[in-house]
Amino acid sequence: MRGFMKAVSERPPQSEKKLRRKPLLGKAIVPLCVASFFLGLVFSSRKDLLPSANLRKTTSISRESRISLFPHDYEHKRRLDVTNEVTKTLEAIQSLDKSVSSLELELAVARASRSGPGSLKSMASMKRLQKAFVVIGINTAFSSKKRRHSLRETWVPRGDKLRRLEEEKGIVIRFVIGHSATPGGVLDRAIDAEDGETKDFLRLDHVEGYHELSSKTRLYFSTAVATWDADFYVKVDDDVHVNLGMLASKLANYRTRPRVYIGCMKSGLVLSRKGLKYHEPEFWKFGEEGNKYFRHATGQIYAISKDLAAYISINAPILHRYANEDVSLGAWLIGLEVEHVDDKSMCCGTPPVGYANRWRG
User: Which of 40, 107, 170, 302 has the fewest CB atoms in 10 Å of its CB?
Assistant: First the structure.
């Protein structure tokens, strides 16, 4: 019993056990608090980090937007700059083209001044050139007095009427002729007398002859350019009757175009056989026998603009002459940037209402 009591007495009471465990719980709270504190720091840090990441993402997006927009703005600005530069360049080219055309005309005047009696004698006198709308040169010969008389009775004014036509309408009309093989002979004196009465001739330093028509045409344009500052230069044969009003109206439609070649365009056969009227000695240049010429205006009447007349004058020494003058003119122009106008109303043989009507006299 005593042993049992002793054993019982030696066992600690239950309350004492509980009291002894409390310090352990107190010690455990401290680490838990510390752990909780650190966990709170971790969670709070992650929450703080998320807005920062979103901010960086937003900033990155805005930068990407700016980067993506910047090339567009730059490209647009670059295109505007290029467009402005192109516009300035085109304006400069147009201005240069006008200057070149002016210089070419001056050169044409200078060269033509050495060609014939009706030409200018110095570059200084170039500024005194008579302004005109169109110069009409009527190709004539010593034997064509009756034809000239017929034209004066129909569409070529005389005396004061001819001068008023030049002053009021800017239409200059002249019979174009050179001199005979013996200058100062009977034929030349007859033309001098006729010119003294009518004053409607343009004399060329050229020996007249049927086979020299290409040379005469070339010299006519050179001399006309050196004498009149016109928009157009027309060549017409002395057996063609012209409706001046309709011709002037037609040419006015092309006044703003720099290089125009107007006429009844054709492409006839190249005649290789000798003895024929329009025989072409250089027929072999146009290909095989039976070939046709390139397209060109018939020789009875055609018109060219000022730039083309100046071009002929400037390059006269190297412009090749074929047997037929209309073919020669077509050859001089076919390799250039020229507007060919095929006007069927300028074809001879059309009804009188047309621009030209060939005279069968």
Answer: 40
Sign of the Cα torsion 303, 307, 310, 316 reads negative
Helix crossing, 14-112 with 306-314: angle to 10°? Answer: 70
User: Please, is 307 exposed, middle or buried when counting C-beta atoms within 10 Å of its C-beta (0-12, 13-18, 19+)?
Assistant: buried
Sheet of 130-139: strand order equals 201-207, 171-179, 130-139, 228-237, 296-305, 260-266, 339-342
| pLDDT string in tens for the chain (361-residue length) | 444 444 444 454 544 444 444 444 555 566 666 666 666 655 555 444 444 444 454 445 455 545 444 556 666 677 777 777 777 777 677 666 655 555 555 555 555 445 443 443 444 344 578 999 999 999 999 999 999 999 999 999 999 999 999 999 999 999 999 999 888 899 999 999 999 999 999 999 999 987 789 999 999 999 999 999 999 999 999 999 999 999 999 999 999 988 999 999 999 888 888 878 888 888 888 888 878 889 999 999 999 999 999 999 999 999 999 989 999 999 999 999 999 999 998 987 654 434 556 544 3
- Taking the C-alpha atoms of residue 230 and residue 258, their distance in angstroms, rounded to an integer, is 12
**HEC per residue, 302-333:** EEEEHHHHHHHHHCHHHCCCCCCHHHHHHHHH
Coil/strand/helix, residue 36: helix
Residue type, 67: I
184 Rama class: left (phi>0) / alpha (psi -120 to 50) / beta: left
| Tokens 């647009």, residue located | 76
Amino acid at 157: P
Helices (H), 228-356: 244-252, 306-314, 325-334
Distance CA 345, CA 357 (A): 9
What is the C-alpha to C-alpha distance for residues 172 and 201, in angstroms, rounded to an integer? 11
**For residues 287 and 326, what is the distance between their CA atoms, to the nearest angstrom?**
19
